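Give me C-alpha cells for this 205-residue protein.
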Amino acid sequence: MSMKFSSKYLEQAVEALSELPSVGKKSALRLALHLINDESEKTKRIAQSLITLKENITRCKTCNNLADTDTCDICLSESRRRNIICVVENVRDVMAIEDTQQYSGIYHVLGGVISPLEGIGPEDLSIQLLKDRVEQGQVDELIMGLSPTIDGETTIYYLSKILSDTDVKISLIARGVAFGGELEYADELTIARSIQSRIPYLAGQ
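Here you go.
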C-alpha cells in the first residue's frame, strides 16, 4: 500500500511504527496521528520509556530471563523452590505461567527452540547455561514447559539426551495445551492444571 505524506516526519514515524510485529501501515498511521494530536505528555513518556528499556534491560545471568540487574527478581526471591526449574521458550511463557500463581519453582528461558528449518540449533539457545545449572547438583526436576510443537518436542528430546548422565528428573506438562499450540496463548487455568498434572518424560515415547 502506497501512502502520500505531507510531512516527512510523519512518514518516518509511520515507517518506524510499521516495523513492529502485527502493525501495518494503516495501524501505524493511526498511532502516529493519535500521538500528534495528544495534548498530554503521553508521547514523551512512551518515547522515554522505550529508550530506557532499550538502554537498561538485560538478561539474568542465572536463568536468561529479562531483568533490570544481573539477576532477575524470580531468581532472587527467597520464597521460590530452587530445586525445580521450568524450562520455557521465551519470556512471554514465564509471564503466562506466573499469571497462574500456581508455580513456586524457578525458570530457565531457552530463547527459542531447536528448529532445523529456521536454522536454529542448540548453540543458538541457552542450553549450555541450563546444563551448567543442572550439573551444579542443586536441581531435582526440570519441567519442560515448551509448546507442544514438533520443534518443541525435538528440543525436549535433545535436552533429555544431553542430561541423561545426570540424576535430574525430567517431566512434561500435561497435554491440556493442545499439540501444535503456543503455551503463551493458553488460558491460566489450563496452564496451571498442565503444570500440576505433569508426567515423567520418557525419551522416544
